[in-house]
Design goal:
The complex is a heterodimer of chains A (264) and B (278). Chain A is an all-alpha fold and 264 residues long. Chain A is 86% helix and 0% strand. Chain A has one domain. The chains are: A mainly alpha (264), B alpha/beta (278).
Chain lengths: 264, 278
């Protein structure tokens, strides 16, 4: 009975948490599209957030996905060599990246950089009563803090994902040229032939959804921070762990959705 | 008392009227049915020891906590039944200075002070800039517009917080422990600032503090909270001459007696109100 009780409580708590995240995103979305005084300042904050979330993440995303591309090419070649099908290495790399690993790796890197930063920033503001100060000045913390982050994330995640896909393909091409007998032109021709529009679009839809999750969890954990600086650290860690878990769940859901709805 | 939409129990000429206010955190009641008034233009000091409920009272007055029951009349509205939009409109007429100043670290002092004006007023940027300089000058921080909060001392942060609280020319100013953590000289400067602002603008001020010298300097009237109830309510002289034991213990700085009896100590730990004091 204790196990069923634990599972039941855990399920209810999880559903309640997801409900809180949905409510936060809904409020932030309404705030984005509601015209109010001080809108110029909010656009500037969104731009500042976009720089932090997107532009500053380019070097690390480039490096990691470049290496991932090489790894994918090596692993694919290892098996394809047995069947004399090395000409399909570009296909394997491109499809794996655009449909799955590009958005997922980008999300994990952004969680580590930006999701944790959102939780830390808002958590610190909560501990030092800055959130209370906003409320006493009749400023909605969700409009002021969450909405600019949401706009920045939803613009930057698809952009970063496309860049990650490109760098991964470049990584795969590096192996293809140096170790699999491709030329630059033949590798990229094979890549373009392998890719369908839906391969890229499904990846970008996932990236968009991952952006929603990362913003919601990072900000919500910040708002839930308890008193004391130790709690800020705890919120940051919790935000990263929960974001990774929920991103995987969303990935599973959308992968299954695309599988069952795609024309055969 | 059930909340009402009219103000039958608000005292004439009062800026704030509190009637039978109860506030709880979960199952634990912090304020046990307190009532008092704050007259327009006066400075009310809320005194009390740690855990007496004074911060909870202040947070409830500015709408950061919801009452469990009772009424708080402020600006003609009952805070217990106010809608979120009405609360937002009311908050544009009050200002609050927090204990830790609560300045936004990513903004300059000038940006902090101008934030309410940028968000709520139709003033253009150059007018707002002039207003900011004026407010900073009033608190003795002229020329500090472009400093970041981290570059300021504790006393300067408090002054900047007061400037921000005043930026919309509020009718009521709330101060949460304005002298906390400051040395006596700087604390005296903050007291003088509060007195100067009150004299110049005729503002109603509500100050939460446990610093007795500060309280008796700036306060017109005082209430002393003890474990969620008001044990004294009156002018400075009335409080000073009170013979109520808890008031005297607070004013004369007498420590709580040591509990020598094991049963009494256990009763104190479990919160038994019938513990006998020597």
């Amino acid at each position: 009975m204790a196990i069923t009780d634990t599972v039941g409580r855990g399920t209810i708590d999880t559903l309640a948490y997801v409900g809180q995240l949905a409510r936060l995103i809904a409020r932030a979305t309404v705030a984005v599209f509601t015209k109010t005084q001080g809108q110029g300042a909010r656009y500037r904050r969104a731009l500042h957030q976009a720089m932090a979330v997107g532009i500053e993440a380019l070097p690390i995303i480039s490096l990691i996905t470049f290496f991932v591309g090489i790894i994918l090419a090596l692993q694919s070649a290892h098996e394809l060599k047995r069947f004399g099908a090395m000409e399909f290495v570009p296909n394997a790399v491109a499809l794996s990246l655009t449909r799955e690993l590009g958005p997922l790796m980008t999300a994990i890197i952004v969680i580590g950089r930006s999701g944790s930063a959102f939780a830390a920033e808002i958590g610190t503001m909560k501990v030092s009563e800055e959130i209370d100060a906003l409320e006493t000045m009749a400023l909605d913390p969700v409009r002021f803090l969450v909405a600019p982050k949401l706009v920045a994330m939803l613009i930057m995640m698809p952009c970063l994902t496309m860049w990650a896909d490109f760098m991964g393909i470049v990584g795969g091409a590096t192996f293809g040229i140096l170790g699999a007998g491709f030329t630059f032109g033949s590798y990229f021709r094979a890549t373009l032939d392998a890719l369908l529009k839906e391969d890229i679009v499904t990846g970008l839809i996932k990236a968009f959804m991952f952006g929603l999750v990362i913003t919601a969890v990072g900000c919500q954990e910040g708002f839930l921070t308890g008193l004391g600086s130790e709690q800020v650290g705890r919120s940051t860690t919790t935000a990263v762990v929960k974001s990774i878990f929920l991103v995987i769940v969303v990935d599973l859901a959308f992968t299954a959705l695309f599988y069952f709805t795609s024309p055969s | 008392m059930t909340p009402s939409s009219e103000a039958p129990t608000q005292a004439r000429g009062s800026a704030i009227s509190v009637r039978d206010l109860r506030v709880s955190y979960g199952e634990r009641e912090i304020l046990h049915g307190i009532s008092f008034d704050v007259c327009a233009g006066e400075t009310l000091v809320i005194l009390g020891g740690s855990g007496s409920g004074k911060s909870t009272l202040l947070r409830t007055l500015v709408g950061l906590e919801r009452p469990t029951s009772g009424e708080i009349w402020l600006g003609g509205k009952n805070m217990a039944t106010i809608t979120p939009k009405e609360l937002n409109d009311l908050r544009k007429t009050i200002g609050m200075s927090f204990q830790g100043s609560a300045l936004f670290g990513s903004m300059t002092v000038g940006e902090n002070v101008s934030l309410p004006l940028r968000e709520h007023s139709p003033l253009d940027a150059s007018t707002i800039e002039i207003m900011v300089r004026l407010k900073l000058d009033q608190v003795g921080l002229a020329g500090y517009e472009n400093y970041m909060p981290a570059q300021l001392s504790g006393g300067m942060k408090k002054r900047a917080a007061v400037a921000r609280a005043m930026s919309m020319d509020p009718q009521i100013l709330f101060f949460d422990e304005p002298s906390a953590g400051l040395d006596p000289i700087i604390a005296a400067g903050i007291d003088e600032l509060i007195l100067k602002l009150k004299k110049a603008f005729g503002m109603t001020c509500v100050v939460v503090t446990h610093e007795l010298p500060s309280a008796f300097l700036i306060g017109d009237r005082m209430i002393l909270l003890d474990r969620g109830v008001i044990v004294a309510n009156g002018t400075k002289d009335e409080i000073q001459s009170s013979t109520q034991p808890r008031v005297r213990q607070f004013l004369d700085r007498i420590a709580e007696p040591e509990l020598e009896d094991e049963l009494s100590y256990l009763q104190m730990l479990i919160g038994d109100e019938s513990v006998v004091r020597k």
